[in-house]
Every structure is written in structure tokens, then in C-alpha cells.
Amino acid sequence: MNTTRRRLLGAGAAMAGGSLLASAAGAQSFPFRPNQRYPDPAVQILDPSFARYRIYSSTLEQVATGMRWAEGPAYFPEGGYLLCSDIPNNRIMKYDEKDGSFTVFREPANFANGNVRDRQGRLITCEHSVTRRLTRTERDGRITVLADSFEGKRLNAPNDVVVRSDDTIWFTDPLFGINGEWEGSRARPEQPTTNVYRIAADGTLRAVITDIVNPNGLAFSPDESKLYVVEWRGTPNRSIWSFDVAPDGSVGNKTKLIDAADQGALDGFKVDRDGNLWCGWGSNGALEPEPSMDGGRQVFGLRGKPEDLDGVMVFNPQGKPIGFIRLPERCANLAFGGPKNNRLYMTSSHSLYALHVEAHGAV
């Protein structure tokens, strides 16, 4: 793909640009039609407390498409752009707010998954297959390896990452990137557990959580006194656990904050300044126990319709669902961005969506 290709501005031209990118990527492009009425029915108020975060005259936008599995959004305010991973295509994409272009930032990208901007404006990336490491892109473009092993054994598949105000780096290390060939290459895990790690300011790597089955997304509360971590399986539903963070960086008081129940799937998430959790949401792929007839065949259908589950579920700090943003594709992760830090970017299967809200990212 020509990395200088521009995604044209305007509704009709945007669709054409998206189609070109999709064709180059080998991925399907979904026709998206923005809502013409205010308020946008895609933004659903589940509790009156969420009404304050909805902008009455803001509607959902599809700003880019053509990826195979979009993940890991990270916003860079100094440049006015967002980076996100297109994992199966082994690249990191760049969406520029100024001109609406959507171009390749890095290819190959070692099957990058989670990304974050550190406090110095540098990109930190979870390379979750083949290299299986956490890296930092320096200002001159050099790549610094922050972690690739623990206690003499290779990491599993670094997935998501967050930077605390003390410059410590926290990341999850499940098995997804080495479980198959779709998002990298199948490999044997060397770590006996799937951990959450902390990299101290001096570079020391420490496993702070070792009893979560395939930890996924993670984030801190606004005051950083709590760490939230998604557990992919083991409870048996996907859950978010809350941990108290001690001054020395250790964690304790493990408490289940959110249970996704038997249909929904938690993935990446972010926390706003009020402590609400904005969570990527969709079907977990669980099947009905009995088949039904479809076109003369017995078919095991999904428990819950993806079209009803795909989007962003918003929970208050107590774990109560208060809002839902319905999307035409499953949302894997999200990030706050824009000049005022109130534009919600959502990486969703093949596309990148955006919505202005009356909430601001906590960091």
C-alpha cells in the first residue's frame, strides 16, 4: 500500500477513500451512514447520570476503515493524530485530525497490539507476537526494547499498556498473540502464568499480578489509587478486577468490579476524569446450548445478537452500567483524544469511529 495515500474529505469522498484502503488491506469495507437527527440514537442512556456526558448535537462518525482487526488506539495531542494497530495486517495506522488522512505509520509492526503515549510524548507498543516484547519509539525513530523476558523466559504476548504519572509502565501479558496464526505466529508459552507487569523508572521488571487468566485491558482510576484489569476467562465470564495500589507499586485487595455476564465481552477500556469506565464491548462468541434451524440446517447460534452487543459500555466507578454507544462493529479498544481530550476514538473490527462527548480522559 502507498503510505502517502490520502483519505479524501467529505462524506462521499470519505467512503471512496475507505474503499481504496479496504481493497489494499484485503478487508471488507462496511458502508456507514451517520445519523441525521439529534440526539443520535446510537448513544443510549441506561441511567440518568449518563445524560450529562452525551452531547445532544454530536453524532457518531466513521473516520477510517479497511483494517482487519483494529486495536490499541493512542492519541498524540502535540501532533493532532491517533495511532492504532491493525494486527493481522501487521501494521500500525495513523489517523490525522487535521486533514482526515489515514495512512500506514509502521509496517511491519511485529503484530503490535496495545499502544500508549508516555509522559514524554513517545510511543510505547506491545509487540504481541514473534518478537513478544514491549518497545518504546524514541523521538529520532530508534526502537528501545523495554522488556522481552521475565526471570530468564520469554514473555507470552504483551497485549495492553498504560503509563502512570510516576513514569512506571504497566502491561498485560496473556497468550492471544501466540495462540494461533491470525494475529502472529503460534508459539509455546514459556511463562507459567499470564501476568500483569510493572516496569519501574529504573527499568526493573516485576510481576505485580499473577493470578488472572489472560489479563487484557488495564487502566488506573483518576487518582491512580486503583488499578483495573480485564480478565478474559476464568470467572467464568469476562470481568474487570479492581486492585488497590500501594506506594511501592504493589497491589492488593482484589475485588470484582464488573462482570460481563454470559453474552458480553470486555476488552480494552479507558477511565474518564470522573472515574467512569468506558469499555470496548461485543459478543463473546459463546454458543447456544441447542441448535436451531436455519435454511434447512441445524446451526448453533450465538448467545445474544452481536448487533445488540457491539459498542462501548460505560460503567460508573461503582461498576453500574450507565450508558451504551451502539456501533456497527465490535469495539476492541478506545482512547480519548482531540484538542480538548473529549473526542472518544473507538477501534472497532475493521474501522475507527469517533464521538465527541462531555467527558475527558483521566490521563
TrEMBL record:
The keyword Protein biosynthesis is assigned to this record: no
Every SMP-30/Gluconolactonase/LRE-like region domain range: 69-350
UniProt entry tagged with the keyword Signal: yes
Database matches in InterPro entries: 6-blade_b-propeller_TolB-like (IPR011042), SGL (IPR013658), SMP-30 (IPR005511), SMP-30/CGR1_Lactonase (IPR051262), TAT_signal (IPR006311)
Protein residues bound to a divalent metal cation: E71, N216, D267
Keyword list, A-Z: Hydrolase, Metal-binding, Signal, Zinc
Top-level taxon in the UniProt lineage: Bacteria
Cofactor: Zn(2+)
Binding, substrate: N159, E183
GO MF terms, alphabetically ordered: hydrolase activity; metal ion binding
Signal sequence segment: 1-24
Cofactor details (free text): Binds 1 divalent metal cation per subunit.
Active site: D267 (proton donor/acceptor)
Alphabetical list of PROSITE patterns matching this protein: TAT
Pfam family of the protein (one): SGL
UniProt name for this protein: SMP-30/gluconolactonase/LRE family protein
Organism: Teichococcus oryzae
